[in-house]
Inverse folding.
């Protein structure tokens, strides 16, 4: 049964509806009325939480910033080996609560039409790559090697999402040791791989 027009959606309902809509439409083209119809509520429900559409878009950008926070935090973790350090970062790709790829691509697309957003995307990329470069440097790579390996790790993953590559989890896990060797020049231990697989399984 459809919700009555006066039904009040929660703030999370509005955010979730917007995130789901990003698979079909650009973030800066989201319409409040269309989202209200999706939620089965009156448009006035939106204004319980947001003064206008710009504030709503800013809320989505705030959520997007969490992608950067997750990568930076995991890049800075102590790790016994460079392979273990990379696996810590890979947790971001394995858990959309840490890194939302649909939202990340949507903000990148928005940046092609808005210089201010483009600047925020560039700043986020700089922070992410900087943290990854420092991670490799801590594990003994010189400046040039640390930078290039950071780029390989980061750009390959962003490209994976941009290309819309469709693989099963089993396939990705099967490739994992080879990816790690290509990015680090070393092999992960069985225990390191098992710990990551356990994280993914949870």
């Amino acid at each position: 049964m459809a919700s009555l027009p006066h039904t009040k959606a929660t703030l999370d309902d509005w955010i979730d509806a917007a995130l789901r809509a990003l698979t079909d439409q650009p973030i800066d083209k989201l319409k409040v009325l269309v989202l209200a119809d999706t939620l089965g509520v009156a448009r006035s429900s939106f204004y319980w939480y947001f003064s206008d559409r710009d504030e709503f878009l800013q809320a989505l950008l705030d959520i997007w910033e969490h992608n950067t926070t997750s990568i930076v935090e995991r890049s800075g973790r102590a790790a016994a080996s460079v392979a273990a350090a990379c696996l810590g970062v890979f947790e971001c790709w394995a858990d959309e609560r840490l890194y939302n790829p649909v939202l990340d691509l949507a903000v990148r697309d928005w940046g092609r039409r808005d210089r201010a957003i483009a600047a925020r995307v560039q700043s986020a990329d700089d922070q992410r790559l900087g943290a990854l470069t420092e991670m490799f440097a801590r594990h003994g790579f010189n400046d040039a090697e640390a930078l290039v390996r950071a780029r390989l790790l980061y750009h390959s993953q962003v490209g994976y999402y941009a290309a819309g590559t469709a693989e099963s989890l089993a396939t990705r896990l099967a490739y994992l040791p080879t990816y790690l060797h290509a990015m680090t020049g070393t092999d992960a231990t069985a225990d390191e791989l098992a710990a990551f697989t356990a994280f993914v399984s949870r």
